[in-house]
Amino acid sequence: MKAQKNVALAFLLGTFLTGGALGFSANRYMERGKVCVVRGENPLVEIMSGRLQLTPVQRAQMDSILDVRSQQYRKAMAPLRPQLDSIKLEARAHMRDVLDERQRAEFEAMLRELSDSTKKEDEQA
Fold this sequence. Notes:
The chain has five helices and no strands. The protein has a domain at about 40-80. It has helices at about 1-35, 45-50, 55-75, 80-100, 100-125. It starts with a helix and ends with a helix.
């Protein structure tokens, strides 16, 4: 009886983590154009500069703060990256199983676009 509960709990936890990763990824993909409408060295600094009317000195300080934050995020996420990538790839495999041939081709195109834009962001960082 306890083993069955543990299996059910593990299944629910796996489903929750997969759903969370999928939701996050889908939201990031769908909202990308709305959030990063300004293209520059750092889109967030561009947005803040316009809305907050930052002086050049404030803008440079914000840019430095966000650079440090990005470095800290990357460092903190590095140990988790393999596990997150595994979850993402498993979810994508399940999604492919749901789609027909035409949809799978479009899905692959979407993934390539997402990958290309992510690579560009990484190169700018």
